[in-house]
Amino acid sequence: MKVNTRVLAALSGGLAVLLAVSACGDDTGKKRDEWAKGVCDQAAVQIKKIDDSNNSLGQVDSGGKPADVQSADAAAFQSAADAFGSLSAIFTKAGPAPGDDGKTFQQNAVTVFHDAATQYAGLKKQIDGLDTRHQAKFADGLKNVSASLQKASAAGQKSRDSLRQGDVGQALAKQPGCRGVVPTASAS
């Protein structure tokens, strides 16, 4: 009888530990969702700025006056660079997401958005450096900017796709404010 009581006590203790671990898992999921909501609520404004920048790039008349094209593209690139920089800062300030991969995810997100900000700042610098006095030279330069934009967009999309992975990525994907993190770039 004593053996059965000990076995029963051990099983009960094991069940209590299992329930406690399960409860912690649920708690981590809830905390991760709360973390994601906080990040995404802040990110929504920046994501809209990126979308607006990309839309404005698509509306620029590449056959227009070079100075007008340059000005419009430069403004769009600067706006996108600022927004990506803000996203990097949001993830920095948010700290690691709850869970095992939270710190790695956060560091990756900060890097991805910082790199995107740097790329768009580079595009602005590239467009600002074009000679607007000569239509043909400007058109050739614009082709180079367009090629750079396509490369930056492809690399950025691949990097941002990595942010959809794992538990943290799934938590962010559930949040309305984080939809549209991957911009679609159109060249002028």
Write the layout of secondary structure elements.
Blueprint (H helix, E strand, L loop, with lengths): L1 H58 L6 H29 L7 H27 L6 H27 L4 H8 L15
List keywords for this structure.
single chain, 188 residues, mainly alpha, 0% strand, elongated, disordered N terminus
Structure, described:
The chain is mainly α. The chain has one domain (34-178). The protein has helices at residues 2-59, 66-94, 102-128, 135-161, 166-173. The protein is elongated and about 65 Å long.
Structural class: mainly alpha
Number of E-state strands: 0
Poorly predicted parts: 1-25, 182-188
- Report, as a whole number of angstroms, the end-to-end distance: 84 Å
SSE succession:
HHHHH
β-sheet strand percentage: under 5%
Taken from the alpha-carbon principal axes, the silhouette is elongated
Output the radius of gyration.
Answer: 24 Å
Helix count from the secondary structure assignment: 5
Biggest β-sheet strands, sense, barrel: none
Q: What proportion of the residues is helical, as a percent range?
A: over 70%
Q: Work out the count of structural domains.
A: 1
Short recap of the structure:
With 188 residues, this protein is an all-alpha fold. The protein is 79% helix and 0% strand. α1 packs antiparallel against α2 (66-94) and α3 packs antiparallel against α4.
